[in-house]
Amino acid sequence: MKVLVTGGAGFIGSDFVRLAARKGWKVTVIDKLTYAGDLERLKPIEDRLSFYNTDILDKEEMKKIFKKHKPEAVLHFAAETNIDKSVIEPSVFMETNIIGTIYLLELAKEFEVKKFINITSYEEYGEIIEGEREEDCPLNPRSPYAVSKTSADMLGQVYWRSLKLPLITLRLCSIYGPWQNPERLIPMTVLKALRNEPIPIYGTGDVTREWLYLCDCIRAIFAALEEGKPGEVYNVGSGERYQVVEIVREILKLLDKPQSLIKFVSDRPGHEKRIAICSEKIKNKLKWIPHTKFESGLKMTVEWNLNNRTWLFKKLFYYEDLWNKLYRED
Ligand SMILES: NC(=O)c1ccc[n+]([C@@H]2O[C@H](COP(=O)([O-])OP(=O)(O)OC[C@H]3O[C@@H](n4cnc5c(N)ncnc54)[C@H](O)[C@@H]3O)[C@@H](O)[C@H]2O)c1
Fold first, then answer.
1. In the structure, which protein residues have their CB atom closer than 6 angstroms to any atom of ligand 1?
2. 2-174+212-236 maps to which CATH number?
3. Domain spanning 176-209+242-273+293-326, CATH class
4. Helices in 181-258 by DSSP H: which ranges?
5. Measuring from atom 30 of ligand 1, which residue has the nearest CA?
6. Angle between helix 59-69 and 100-110 (nearest 10)
7. Domain boundaries, the chain
8. pLDDT (tens digit, 9 = 90+) per residue, 159-204?
9. Assign residue 208 a region: left if phi > 0, alpha if psi is -120 to 50, beta otherwise?
C-alpha cells in the first residue's frame, strides 16, 4: 500500500504514520512543521518513510510529490487545529483548512487516488445540549475552526458526489493520548501542574466533550481506509462524555497536586456547552469499537507525559505566549 499523509508530524497523523510504516507500507509524509508539527514523533520510523517539509498550499511542490510517489491513498490530517486560537487569528485556518483541502482534492483527482480519507471534526455539529448527533444531522459550526472544517468536509463530499473521487469522511470527537501538544487540555494541565502554575479553565468548566483514546482513533482510521465505503461519512466517538473541570480535577488527583491550582477565567465567545455524537454507524458497518475506557486512557496519558516531560516542556515559550492571549480574567 502506498499512502500519502498530510500533517503526518502532528499528534494524530504521526500515530497513523508510525503504524503504517510498521506494517511495511510505503509512506510519504507532507508536513509544514508549524508549531504543532514535530519530527521527534516520527523518530522511531524515520528511515522507513519519505518526508517532505512542505506546505499543502504549495501547489507546485505538492504536484511533484504526487508525481514521484503516486499514492494509492491519501490521508488528510494537515490543519490548523487550535479552536481557541481560531477565534483570534481566523485567516490562517481558512487558508490551510479550506484552500489547502481544495488543492489536495484536485491533486487526488488528477492522480486518480483510490481512497481519500478526509479527517474532520465533531465540532461541525455545533452545540448539542441534549442527545447526540448522527452523520446526517444538520451542521451548525460555531468557531472559525469549525467553519473551516465544515467547509473542508463539504468540499470533500462534493468531490465524491460530482467528480467520483472515492472519498470517506471521518468526523472525530476529542482525541487524547501520548504526543499531544500542551495546548490541549490534558497535557496542558499536566505541564502547568508540574510547574505549580494556575490551570486556566474557561467559565465554570462545565463544558462537556466526548473523549477517545488515540489508539482507538487510529484503529477507526485504518478500518475506514481498509473497509470504508466511498462517499460515506462516519462519526468516530467513544460515547464517554466528561466536563472539562472533572478531567482537570482527576489529573490533579493523579499528580497529587492541590485542586486550588484551578483558576476559572473568562469564557471564549461562542463556546459550545456540549458536543456529543452517535458512532453506531462505524460500529455496525466497519465493526470498530473503542477498547480503552477514559479512566485508564487518562491514567496512561498522564503517565506518558510524566515520562516524557522534556518533550512536554520543549515548546513552552510558544505555548506561554499563546496562553497569555487566550486566558484572561476580565
Ligand atoms: N486532536 C483532536 O482532538 C481532533 C479532533 C477532531 C478532529 N481533528 C482533526 O484531526 C486532524 C489532526 O489533528 P491533530 O490533533 O493531530 O493536529 P495537530 O495540530 O497536532 O497536527 C496538525 C499537523 O498539520 C501540520 N500542518 C499545519 N498546517 C499545514 C500546512 N499548511 N501544510 C502542511 N502541514 C500543515 C502541522 O505542522 C501539524 O503537524 C486535523 O485535521 C484536526 O482538525 C483533531
1. 6-7, 9-13, 30-34, 36-37, 55-57, 77-81, 96, 100, 119, 121, 149, 172, 174-175, 181
2. 3.40.50.720
3. alpha beta
4. 185-194, 214-227, 244-254
5. 55
6. 30
7. 2-174+212-236, 176-209+242-273+293-326
8. 999 999 999 999 999 999 999 999 999 999 999 999 999 999 999 9
9. beta
